[in-house]
Design brief:
The chain is an alpha+beta fold and 135 residues long. It has helices spanning 2-7, 26-36, 75-84, 87-90, 94-110; strands at 13-21, 63-73, 120-132. It has a single domain, classed as Rossmann fold, CATH 3.40.50.150. 36% of the residues lie in helices and 24% in strands. A three-stranded antiparallel sheet has the order 1-3-2. Helix 2 (26-36) packs antiparallel against helix 5 (94-110). The two termini are 14 Å apart.
Length: 135
């Protein structure tokens, strides 16, 4: 945080933004379960370790708000392509990536909310955090 304090002048704002899947839908939670098995020690929003620096010296209190949004399209695009592009999955050897894609396709084929749909909606939340640089 000391590096950020050197960049921001007094009164400046630090903003942190994450788009996270809304796991209140059971199929989205299952999607996350598939992905989490492969993340290893990759830093992730949901792990919460990033919050350990707050409250940060020289900054006001960390504030938060959340906005819902959606990613709509064919399952192959909004689930398969999206998941396979996540860095820790994209870096896996090809046989492991293929196994993940197969598992995702099985979820799509067998879950009532997804099976046979031309277009699906993946629910997300944009989590926004901010604090102001003090003296």
């Amino acid at each position: 945080m000391a590096e950020i304090a050197r960049v921001l002048k007094s009164g400046g704002w630090l903003g942190l933004i994450w788009n996270v899947r809304d796991e209140s839908e059971d199929w989205v939670a299952k999607l996350t379960e598939i992905m989490v098995r492969h993340e290893g020690n990759t830093p992730r929003y949901r792990k919460g370790s990033w919050k350990q620096v707050f409250p940060a010296a020289g900054f006001g209190p960390l504030q938060q708000t959340s906005f819902p949004h959606q990613h709509t399209g064919p399952a192959e695009q909004v689930i398969i392509d999206r998941c396979m592009s996540v860095s820790f999955i994209a870096a896996l050897p090809e046989p492991e990536r293929e196994a993940i894609a197969t598992e995702l396709r099985a979820l799509i084929a067998h879950h009532a909310a997804l099976a046979g749909k031309q277009e699906i909606v993946v629910p997300y939340r944009t989590e926004v955090f901010w604090c102001q640089r003090q003296l």
